[in-house]
Design a protein that fits this description.
The complex is a heterodimer of chains A (about 375) and B (about 300).
Chain A (H helix, E strand, L loop, with lengths): L4 E15 L4 H6 L8 E15 L3 E6 L5 H9 L6 E6 L3 E4 L12 H11 L4 H15 L14 H13 L5 E5 L7 H16 L3 E5 L3 H7 L2 E6 L2 E6 L1 H18 L9 E13 L2 E12 L7 E7 L5 E6 L12 E9 L7 E10 L5 E13 L19
Parallel strand pairs in A: 3-7, 3-8, 5-6, 6-7
Antiparallel strand pairs in A: 1-2, 1-4, 8-9, 10-11, 11-14, 12-13, 12-15, 15-16
Chain B lengths: L2 H15 L3 E2 L7 H13 L1 H16 L8 H20 L9 H28 L1 H6 L6 H28 L10 H26 L3 H14 L7 H8 L3 H6 L3 H13 L1 H5 L12 H26 L3 H4 L1
Classes of the chains: A alpha/beta (about 375), B mainly alpha (about 300).
């Protein structure tokens, strides 16, 4: 089926002018020099894209890359300096939960108010009111003023309203990490339901894990430009590379630290009935300290950590003399599903001081599984009784 | 095909029928006005809720509730009645001085509350402005609604007071009242719209407005009657300037409409009215309508950057 376009962004740029003087006095005093008292800053530059119905788009990027600005431009909250945004269908924005809540009103009154802000009429709200209350799980407090709510209750009610307004397009800005675990589960289920109902979701997130799980399209922004648009795994890799470049550009680990990674190499061995992974780590010790250890984690390309451990938890005696030493980690019979996995390494001591880090330093590929697919390598059997 | 898939197909079909619409307010003069009006009209239900929120939240935790909104004008009435009426002696030349002052205070209360409420409305709703797109005019408009509610309560009290201690004019003069109130609402909403937008960029505005309101209070015939002005200035250019103030014209019209003693008193208490008061009022109404249109156009120019300036 050919899905219609829901949002069209054409040549959108956004400039922020930052005035250093806000008061009339300063403006009058600096009238002639006012050009000098403003800073221009392009938050977005020549952005072009379409979002079609039913897709879930993740906007990722570093702090200040323009992703939240872009989300606000799509939502119509900010007007682009140049270019146009066109849109159709109903929009609901989860930019800040409970933005329209009034402290002195009861939960019930706030539900109606917030629903109206999100574009629902009174009769439409009446229809979904019970569902909203049930979803939020705060039935007994619905007639209490919201200022007496706990922060968890507050966001739950706000989220409940937002997901019940029947949006075609849902904008989400880092608000999914709210509430307790069962409620987060509920939120994720709701998002999944939205996806299967053919709604469009645009979300801004710092969690590569979340983006990887939810999105079928990822846009990486950098300095107001779109760096990547498309495949999520590739997008997350580019984002990680970007972090990595930033990290190297600002080395907070001195080159002459007491311990340093020389190299990390991973290899897989196919054995009968399983896959063994070996990692050879070469560490240079320049200035032996009372204790040291190696920490490692295995991530999926989408950023979910599968496993993490440090040598302090392992039965190993590491050498602690000046010079270069080799350590080999062996992971016999790794039962992870097919695909690429990534090693992150770190060097430090027991009290948590870090001397060197090597994120995404090595990777290994797991061969296709014989049956089934997923993140685990299992060989289930089914027997009928 | 599952139900969800069917829903998805239906959604796609519905969406495909709708045209892609440009987001943001257009700054075209005629076209833009129409679009803005339609947008605001579409949000009337929300506007009603916001007004209710404004009124409700104000008195939510007080046991006397709405009575408080009457206290301030009544206390003001008492102060002006004794201090200016009896001690300074204004009441000696103004018949039914209490009624006269209360009419002025009610009109003035509406004007000042709309202007000051609207001015701060964008800042008060900054959380919403920054997070959700709505036609932003509804925030100053909800301040107008809140002020209107207070006005209505006061106005009812005023009518009761007139019925008890004085009498109503019985001729066409009464018709001046609705026209005057309408003029005042439109005029002060226009001022409020502009000030609310300007206040986003220059926060000094709300303090300036506070001071300007104090000055304007004494520049309007609230506690002294127009007759005093006429006696002092004898209709010179300064008096003509005085009469160019829409609030003054509205106030005098309200006094003529509801203050029977002002028209019937003779001798020392006899009052004069500005020439062509009715015509002036109608002109002010037309000017106000033009002003509110210009104000809305200016507002829609300025509102594009609200979210980043707040």
């Amino acid at each position: 089926m050919n899905l219609p376009t829901l949002v069209r962004i054409e040549d959108v740029s956004k400039r922020f002018v930052m005035h250093k003087d806000k008061s009339i006095k300063e403006r009058l005093v600096n009238f002639n020099t006012s050009k000098r008292h403003r800073d221009d800053f392009w938050a977005l530059r020549d952005i072009n894209f379409d979002i079609s119905l039913g897709s879930t788009v993740g906007l990722v990027g570093h702090n200040g890359s323009g992703k939240s600005t872009l989300l606000k431009v799509i939502g119509g909250i900010l007007q682009p300096t140049t270019g146009t945004v066109s849109r159709r269908g109903r929009l609901a924005a989860l930019l800040e939960l409970g933005a329209g809540f009034h402290q002195d009103l009861t939960g019930r009154e706030n539900v109606y108010l917030n629903a109206a802000i999100l574009g629902l009429s009174r009769s439409e709200t009446d229809k979904v009111f019970d569902e909203i209350v049930e979803f939020s799980g705060i039935e007994s407090f619905i007639d209490t003023q919201v200022k007496f709510y706990s922060s968890g209750m507050y966001v739950r009610l706000a989220f409940a309203v937002a997901v019940h307004v029947d949006p075609d397009l849902l904008l989400v800005d880092e608000v999914l990490a709210v509430g307790d675990e069962p409620f987060q589960r509920k939120c994720m289920d709701k998002i999944a339901q939205f996806q299967s109902e053919g709604r469009t979701i645009v979300l801004v997130s710092h969690s590569a894990d979340q983006v990887g799980n939810l999105c079928d399209r990822v846009m990486v922004l950098h300095g107001g430009l779109v760096q990547h648009d498309g495949d999520p795994a590739e997008g997350i890799r580019i984002l990680r590379d970007g972090y990595e470049t930033d990290r190297k550009a600002a080395p907070h680990f001195p080159e002459n630290g007491p311990y340093r990674f020389e190299s990390v190499v991973a290899e897989t061995h196919l054995t009968e009935g399983g896959v063994d992974v070996e990692v050879h780590v070469r560490v240079e010790i320049r200035d032996p300290q009372p204790d040291w250890g190696i920490g490692l984690s295995i991530d999926t390309p989408l950023g979910a950590t599968l496993y993490a451990i440090t040598t302090f938890d392992m039965d190993v005696q590491l050498p602690n003399t000046r010079g270069v030493h080799d350590v080999t980690f062996t992971f016999p019979n790794v039962s992870a599903g097919a695909g690429k996995y990534i090693f992150n390494f770190g060097l430090g001591n027991k009290s948590g001081k870090n001397w060197d880090q090597a994120p995404a330093v090595a990777s290994f590929d797991m061969p296709p599984t014989s049956i089934g697919h997923g993140i685990l390598r299992l060989e289930p059997r089914a027997v009928a009784h | 095909m599952s139900k969800m898939e069917a829903d998805a197909h239906k959604r796609a079909a519905t969406i495909a029928e709708q045209p892609l619409e440009l987001i943001g307010q257009s700054s075209g003069f005629i076209q833009g006005t129409k679009k803005s009006l339609v947008e605001i009209w579409d949000q009337r239900e929300l506007l009603g809720l916001l007004v209710r929120r404004e009124v409700k939240a104000r008195y939510k935790n007080s046991s006397l509730g709405i009575v408080w909104s009457l206290f301030r004008p009544l206390i003001q009435l008492l102060i002006y009645y004794f201090a200016i009426g009896q001690i300074l002696g204004a009441a000696r030349n103004v018949p039914d001085f209490a009624i006269f002052v209360f009419i002025g205070l009610t009109v003035w209360g509406l004007f000042s509350e709309i202007v000051s409420g609207a001015t701060t409305s964008m800042l008060a709703n900054a959380g919403l402005v920054k997070k959700v797109y709505l036609p932003r005019e509804i925030f100053p408009l909800s301040a107008v609604g809140g002020a209107l509610f207070n006005f209505l309560v006061q106005f009812v009290v005023l009518l009761i007071a007139i019925a008890v201690v004085a009498s109503f004019p019985t001729d066409a003069r009464l018709l001046l009242a609705p026209v005057a109130v309408l003029t005042l609402i439109i005029f002060s909403t226009a001022i409020g719209l502009v000030l609310s937008a300007v206040n986003v960029y220059l926060r000094d505005t709300e303090h300036l407005v506070e001071i300007a309101l104090v000055v304007l209070f004494w520049a309007s015939p609230v506690v002294y009657s127009y007759t005093f002005v006429n006696q002092a200035l004898h209709g010179n250019w300064l008096e003509q300037l005085y009469l160019l103030n829409p609030v003054t014209i509205v106030m005098i019209a309200m006094q003529k409409a509801l203050w029977e003693a002002g028209s019937s008193a003779t001798g020392r208490l006899e009052q004069v009215w500005p020439p062509d008061l009715e015509l002036r009022l109608v002109i002010m109404l037309l000017v106000s309508v033009a002003l509110i249109w210009l104000a809305q156009r200016l507002y829609s120019r300025l509102q594009g950057d609200f979210a980043q300036e707040l």
